[in-house]
């Protein structure tokens, strides 16, 4: 888990960081992502939609430094690479578990790792069945049973949670496109709307680069 320490004294967001960390300000938004190409891609290669989206989100997150921040030993750091911690649903118990998979920039390698993790833990009903969750993770979940225009998680006593949180919904067709509502929640101390805009643009670029 490689990382670099942020020099707050020379960081151009020092004042913003200190202010928004003091008041523990988070913000969230929900946007629609055009996943028409993703659906064609996963059907062509007989993948599943959810892990392909996990890969694409992780690919985009790793290109935005503001989404890779954390506190370690009381210092602000930027992870070299972050990996996804994601939820899977257990229909038999109507509960979920949180798994994690090592990130591979190669889609085939990531899908292989995901499928191995899913096969091993899909029937384990523990909240976190796969041990040793690395520090350099962020969170993804999916609510494929519904669509909504906004989503927000409340943290009453959790401070300095700098890792982004993504929540996917059910995609639907509109004007010939398949659109996926994606909720994004971040800590304002390390991330501004500009950075989320950059992430969304990068995510669309990653989707457009899928070849089938």
Unreliable segments (pLDDT under 50, ≥5 consecutive)?
none
> Gap between N and C termini, in Å?
33 Å
Q: What structural category characterises the helix and strand content?
A: alpha+beta
CATH architecture: 2-Layer Sandwich
Structure description:
Strands 2, 5, 6, 7, 8, 9 and 10 form a seven-stranded mixed β-sheet that branches. Strands 1-4-3 form a three-stranded antiparallel β-sheet, with no helix packed on it. It has one domain: Chloramphenicol Acetyltransferase (2-Layer Sandwich). The mean pLDDT is 95. The chain has five helices and ten strands; from the N terminus they run E-H-E-H-H-E-E-E-E-H-E-E-E-E-H. The radius of gyration is 17 Å and the shape is globular. Helix 3 packs across helix 5. By secondary structure, it is an alpha+beta fold.
Give the SSE layout.
Elements: E1 3-5, H1 14-22, E2 26-34, H2 36-45, H3 49-61, E3 69-72, E4 75-79, E5 83-90, E6 95-100, H4 107-121, E7 137-142, E8 165-168, E9 172-174, E10 177-187, H5 193-208
Helix pairs in contact: 3-5
Quick structural gist:
This protein has 212 residues and is of the alpha+beta class. It is built from five helices and ten strands. β5 (83-90) and β6 form a beta hairpin.
Features:
single chain, 212 residues, alpha+beta, Chloramphenicol Acetyltransferase, seven-stranded mixed sheet, three-stranded antiparallel sheet, 5 helices
């Amino acid at each position: 888990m490689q990382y670099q320490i942020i020099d707050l004294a020379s960081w151009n967001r020092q004042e913003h960081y200190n202010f928004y960390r003091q008041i523990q300000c988070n913000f969230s938004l929900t946007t629609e992502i055009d996943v028409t190409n993703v659906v064609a891609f996963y059907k062509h290669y007989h993948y599943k939609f959810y892990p392909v989206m996990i890969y694409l989100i992780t690919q985009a997150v790793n290109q935005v430094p503001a989404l890779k921040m954390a506190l370690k030993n009381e210092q602000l750091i930027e992870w070299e690479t972050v990996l996804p911690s994601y939820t899977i649903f257990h229909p038999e118990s109507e509960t979920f578990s949180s798994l994690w998979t090592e990130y591979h920039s190669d889609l085939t390698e990531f899908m292989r790792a995901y499928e191995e993790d899913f096969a091993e833990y899909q029937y384990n009903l523990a909240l976190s069945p796969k041990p040793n969750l690395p520090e350099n993770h962020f969170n993804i979940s999916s609510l494929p049973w519904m669509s909504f225009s906004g989503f927000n998680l409340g943290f009453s006593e959790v401070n300095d949670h700098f890792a982004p949180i993504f929540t996917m919904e059910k995609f639907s067709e509109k004007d010939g496109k398949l659109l996926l509502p994606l909720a994004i929640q971040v800590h304002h101390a390390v991330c501004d709307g500009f950075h989320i805009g950059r992430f969304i643009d990068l995510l669309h670029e990653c989707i457009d680069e899928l070849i089938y």
